[in-house]
Amino acid sequence: MNNYHNNSIKSVKIYQQGNTWGFDDLFLNLKFEPFVAGASEAITDWLNNFSSCPNKVNPTMIGSNIEFPGYEVQATLLSEGGYGDGNYMYLDKQGKEQYLWLCPVLSMFWSPIPENIFIKFEN
């Protein structure tokens, strides 16, 4: 997918519609791609309880398949190609375990799907 996959660090500006977080990506022609199946709840939890990001309304979510300075949470791949070809991930943040499903759009950002995704929220 052009040079988009060559970047090891990706970022998306996320926003909420109701209780669901989502993002737009003009390059991939995505409009409000929602985080579902535990992902929106995990984002809300990270922002409210773990993140140092002061902007809890429309933060930028930064993710990488390699550790980077200041990452706040690590998502670990449990299974690839689960329900609807999505990917089940596991999070352990300060002893709080969470499970979530990331839809097949993840493969538009990383191919192959990485075993770990390191995440941080910024303004």
Walk me through the structure:
The chain is mainly beta. It has a single domain, classed as OB fold (Dihydrolipoamide Acetyltransferase, E2P). Helices cover 12% and strands 44% of the residues. The chain contains 2 helices and 8 strands. The protein has an 8-stranded antiparallel beta sheet. A hairpin with a 2-residue loop joins strand 6 (87-93) and strand 7. The longest helix has 11 residues, at 39-49. The termini are far apart. The mean pLDDT is 81.
Tell me the layout of helices and strands.
Elements: E1 9-17, E2 20-25, E3 30-34, H1 39-49, E4 60-64, E5 73-80, E6 87-93, E7 96-102, H2 106-109, E8 116-122
Antiparallel strand pairs: 1-2, 1-4, 2-3, 4-8, 5-6, 5-8, 6-7
Total helix count?
Answer: 2
What's the CATH topology name? Answer: OB fold (Dihydrolipoamide Acetyltransferase, E2P)
- The level 1 CATH classification is Mainly Beta
H-E string = EEEHEEEEHE
Low-confidence stretches: none
Secondary structure tally: strands:
8
Largest sheet: 8 strands, antiparallel
CATH architectural category:
Beta Barrel
Distance between the termini: 27 Å
Instruction: Give the rounded overall mean pLDDT.
Output: 81
- Helical coverage, percent range: 10-25%
Oligomer: single chain
Total individual domains: 1
